[in-house]
Structures are given as structure tokens and as C-alpha cells.
TrEMBL record:
Protein source organism: Senegalia massiliensis
Keyword Zinc annotated: no
Stretches assigned to coiled coil: none
Protein name as catalogued: Hydroxymethylpyrimidine/phosphomethylpyrimidine kinase
EC number: 2.7.1.49, 2.7.4.7
Family membership: Belongs to the ThiD family.
Length: 257
């Protein structure tokens, strides 16, 4: 059985973070492991509190995992401080990890800051360079490239700009552009679009977490990057299409489809 590790924050309401990742990995029929970086008190209406795990404890979790059950792929989500980012980056290098997917989570859908502003630079210099693929949404891509993204041409410009300093695959997700749900993969100067029809579903809590952990599962299976993204886009589309509607705000996805 393939083993997939998620390094992320906990969402007690089960829609995003570690919980969304474990559901995704399990429905891919793989063995899920988790190193928790923060506890959040949140639900479909918002994030109400965050309690960071100490960098020392994150480090111990990673040693326990890597010394015993080595993962075939790793997804990294919410990493709130520069100290936690440094620990993760060092451990990934020390253990020579492969198939690393970094979802640079900065804000929740509800607008709560999930990464401190002073951690941004450390994310860009220490964590993104060890990734095989990064999966920013429009706002995260704007923050990394430094200009606004309003349409698909801007997405290409942003990917080109980011690729000047990062050699990995760059997947800019188009879920927050209004007319479509087209995601752009940019690698070695080549753009590839993964087109998606916008689904009329306000319940999108955890779409980014789910997509990135699905990509990790597919890479862990040994599939190519393009095929991994293609399969993951199919997974997220059917989870959105099934139209689960629970909670009072932007609800979670249905992983049981
Ligand atoms: N309404 C929608 N219809 C179809 N696909 C969507 C929709 N919203 C998001 N997606 C898809 O879901 C995936 C995640 O994209 P999105 O841009 O929402 O990421 P995100 O903002 O990181 O997610 P999150 O809401 O969890 O923070 C992408 O493949 C995107 O195209
Ligand atoms: C622990 C954790 N990780 C990630 C997200 C982002 O997900 P979303 O943008 O859907 O709120 C979140 N809300 N909580």
C-alpha cells in the first residue's frame, strides 16, 4: 500500500486541512499519515482561533514518521510561522523526501490569516524551492509574483514571473476567477491548461487542500505530473458536483462519490 503524508493544520469541522487530506488519501485507497502544524477552531462560517504547534514538536512528529514509515509522497498545507517552515524544509532535505506538493495556504476562504506575514519570505526561500509542485490559488499567486491577476493572460504572466525564481511545476488554480474554473500548469516555460466548467456550488471549503492531497496521492502512485493533475481535477470536480450542503456557511466537499 502507498503511504502519503500530510503536513498541515487541523480543521475541527473536518472540511479543510488535515481532515480533508486524510479523507482524500483514504478514498484513494492509500495509507494516510499526518504531522500537525496548528490547531484551528473553525467551521463553515469562519476561523475563530488558531493554536500553533511548537517547531520542536513538529520536528518530533516528522522524525517519528520518517524513521518508521517513509511516505511515497507528501502534501504540505498550512504552515503558519517561519520557524515551522524552517523545521519542515530541513527535515525534507535531511530525509531526502520525494514527490513534495506545497499548497501555500495564506488565508482561509473566510478571510482569516493562516500564515503570519513575516513567514512569507521564509516560505519563498526555504519551502517552495524543495517542492516538486506548488499549487497557489489566485490570491496566493498574486502575493508571490507581486501583481494582480484578473484573467487567464495574467495567470500566464504570473506563472512566468514565479518560474524565474522557482524551477518546480507551478499550478495556479483558477477557482477564484469568475467565469470558469481553469487551472494553469507551468513548467519549463510551457503552459498547460486543465479546463473546468464552473460548478454552481457555494460549498467550496477545502477545495485547495483536497486538490493538493489528491495530486500527492497520484504522484505517490508513480503517475506523471500531468496525469496526476488531470486525475485530481476530476476528483475535485465530482466532489463539488455531488452538491453536499451542510453547515451554515461555505460547506465542505463530499469525498464519498
Ligand atoms: N465553483 C467551482 N467549480 C468548479 N471547480 C472549482 C470551483 N471552485 C474551485 N474549483 C476548483 O477547485 C480547485 C481548488 O481551487 P481554488 O482556486 O478554489 O483553490 P483554493 O482557493 O486554494 O481552495 P480553498 O477554497 O480550499 O482555499 C481548482 O481545481 C479549481 O479549479
Ligand atoms: C487548517 C486549514 N488549512 C487550510 C485551510 C484553507 O481552506 P479554505 O480556504 O477552504 O478555508 C483552512 N481553512 N484550514
Amino acid at each position: 500500500m502507498k503511504k502519503i503524508l500530510t503536513i498541515a493544520g487541523s480543521d475541527c469541522s473536518g472540511g479543510a486541512g488535515i481532515q480533508a487530506d486524510i479523507k482524500t488519501i483514504t478514498t484513494h485507497k492509500m495509507y494516510a499519515m499526518s504531522a500537525i502544524t496548528a490547531l484551528t477552531a473553525q467551521n463553515t462560517t469562519g476561523v475563530y482561533d488558531v493554536s500553533e504547534i511548537s517547531p520542536e514538536f513538529v520536528s518530533k512528529q516528522l522524525d517519528c514518521i520518517f524513521e518508521d514509515i517513509f511516505p511515497d509522497a507528501i502534501k504540505i498545507g498550512m504552515v503558519s510561522s517561519k520557524e515551522i517552515i524552517e523545521v519542515i524544509s530541513n527535515k525534507l532535505k535531511e530525509y531526502k523526501c520525494k514527490n513534495i506538493v506545497v499548497d501555500p495556504v495564506m488565508f482561509s476562504t473566510s478571510g482569516h490569516e493562516l500564515m503570519s506575514k513575516d513567514a512569507m519570505n521564509t516560505l519563498e526561500t526555504k519551502l517552495l524551492p524543495v517542492a516538486d509542485i506548488i499549487t497557489p490559488n489566485i490570491f496566493e499567486a498574486e502575493s508571490i509574483c507581486g501583481f494582480n491577476i484578473k484573467n487567464k493572460e495574467d495567470m500566464i504572466k504570473a506563472a512566468k514571473e514565479i518560474s524565474n525564481s522557482l524551477k518546480c511545476h507551478i499550478l495556479i488554480k483558477g477557482g477564484h476567477l469568475s467565469d470558469s474554473a481553469d487551472d494553469l500548469l507551468f513548467y519549463e516555460k510551457k503552459p498547460i491548461w486543465f479546463n473546468g466548467k464552473r460548478i454552481d456550488n457555494p460549498n467550496t471549503h477545502g477545495t485547495g487542500c483536497t486538490l493538493s492531497s489528491a495530486i500527492a496521492c497520484n504522484l505517490g502512485k508513480g503517475l506523471s505530473m500531468e496525469k496526476s493533475i488531470y486525475n485530481s481535477k476530476k476528483y475535485i470536480t465530482s466532489a463539488l458536483k455531488s452538491g453536499l450542503d451542510i453547515g451554515k456557511g461555505s460547506g465542505p466537499l463530499n469525498h464519498c462519490v
